[in-house]
Design brief:
About 55% of the residues lie in helices and about 15% in strands. By secondary structure, it is an alpha+beta fold. Helix 3 crosses helix 4.
């Protein structure tokens, strides 16, 4: 048996497409910073805007994109909407990105 005969686990087409969409969503600096912030705890749009020093309207637009691909979720609490990570596995991806030198 040679090296080419071994079964190498690769992404199938559907999984590769979904992972590509995840990476595209994280490919914007503001969205990446939002996900990094939400990795600490849930935040409202206003909190995110203040902490990242970005306009609330921009934060809302970016959260919409992150929600559409399933990376963040929201819940109402005390009359406000709070956003959190929908996928706890994103923590590991963020740690990987923080240690990458480019």
């Amino acid at each position: 048996m040679n090296a080419l005969d071994k079964k190498i686990p690769l992404f199938d087409d559907a999984t590769a497409q979904r992972r590509s969409e995840t990476l595209k969503a994280l490919g914007h600096p503001v969205r990446l910073r939002i996900v990094d912030l939400l990795n600490t705890r849930a935040h409202s749009v206003g909190e995110i805007a203040e902490l990242l020093e970005v306009e609330s309207a921009i934060v809302s637009q970016q959260l919409k994109i992150l929600r559409m691909v399933g990376l963040v979720q929201s819940a109402r609490r005390d009359g406000r909407r709070f956003y959190s990570l929908a996928l706890p596995q994103l923590s590991r991806l963020l740690e990987c990105l923080k240690t990458c030198e480019h």
